[in-house]
Amino acid sequence: MTTASTRPRLAWVDIAKAVSIFFVVSVHAGDWLAFTGVERGPVLEAATTWGEYFRMPVFFAASGVFAARWLAVGWRELLNRRLATLIWVFLTWQVVMFAYKYLAALTLPGQRDTSLGAHLLRVVLSPLRPNAELWFLWALVVFFLVGRLVHRFDRRWVLGVAAVVSVAWSSWVLVDLAPPGSPLMRAFGAGLQKAPMFLVFFLAGAYAGPWLLATAARVRWWQAVGAIIVFAAATVAVDRIGLYATPGVSFAHQVLGLAAGLGAALLLARIPGVGRGLAAVGRRTLAIYVVHSAVVVVTVVVLWETGLSGLLVDHGPTAVLVLTALGFLAGLVLHRLAAGTVLLEAPPWFRPGGRDRATPAERSEPPATPVDVVARPTLPVRSPE
Questions:
Q1: Does residue 370 sit within a domain?
Q2: pLDDT in tens, 261-281
Q3: How far apart are CA 341 and CA 127, in angstroms?
C-alpha cells in the first residue's frame, strides 16, 4: 500500500514549479538590473509580463497538491512536520534579506528607503507584514492554517468563498482601494497585497488534487498546446482592451494561466532529459527561492560600483539571463551543501515535537516556492519589494 510519506512525486508538478521559479528569478534579475539602466528588452519584457499571470497560481496550486494530506492531521503534527520549517526559514533568512536590501539602499540609485531604521523596522514587523522575497513562505503558513481550520466544512463553499475573496481583492482592493504604488498598498507590503488573491489556488490544489492528477494523466499534447494558445490569446486581448478593472477578469485570467502553466509542464515532461532536469530543479525550489535575490543584488551592486553595468546597457537581455542562471546556480549549490541544515530546515528544538523531525521522504518535498518571491499579482508592479 502506498502511504502518504512514500507516494512518488509526479514529474510534471515539479516541472511546473521549475518553470515558475525561472520566471521568479528572471523577474528579480531584470528588476534589479533596471536600477543601473540595464533593461530586459522587448522580448524578455513580454515574457516577464506573461509570466506574471501564471507563476503564482501554478506555485500555490502545486503547493496545495502536496499539502492536501496535511490539512486533516493534528495541529501538533502539522506544526512539527510542515510549518516549523516554513516559519524557521522565513524568520532566519530575514537577516540575509535585511543585509542585501540595506546594501542596495546604500549603493544603488532609485531606492525609496535608504535609512537603517526603515530596514530594521521591516524585519521587526515581518511576521505581521511580510515583505519582499520571503512573503511566499509566510503566505504558505497562513494557507496551511486556514486549510486546517476549514477542512471539516463543505469544500464547495470553502472554494466559493475563497474565489469571491480573490475576485474582490484583484478587482476592487488592488484597483480602487489600494492600487499598486499607493501609500496603503505600501503599508500592506508584498504578502498582504498578494495572499488574498492566491488562497483559492492553494485550496483548489489541495481539494482537487486527485482530480487534477487524474486529468493530467489523460491530457493529450494538443490539449496542452490549446490551453497555452487560449491563455496567450486572452493575455493579448485583455492587455489591449484593458479589462483588468472589470470584476472577475483578473481571476479568470489567472485560472487560464494556471491551465497554461500546467499544460506547458506536461509538454516539457514528455521531452527526455529536459523533463528530468526540470523536475530535479523543481524539487529544489526552496533553496533557489531564498538565496537567489541575495546573489542577484550583490552582483548588481558590484556591477554598478565597478562601472561594469554601463557596458551591459546594450546587452540587457543577455545580462538578465546570465544573472538568472547565476541565481539558479547559487540555489542549487545551497541545496547541495545545506539541505538538512538549519539554513533550510528547522532544528529539533524549534519543532513542537522536538526530536520528532520530518522524515527524509517528507524533506524531499520542499514547499513549492517562488517563490516573487516574489512574484507580483496580475496587476503589474515593477518594484523588487
A1: no
A2: 999 999 999 998 888 899 999
A3: 22
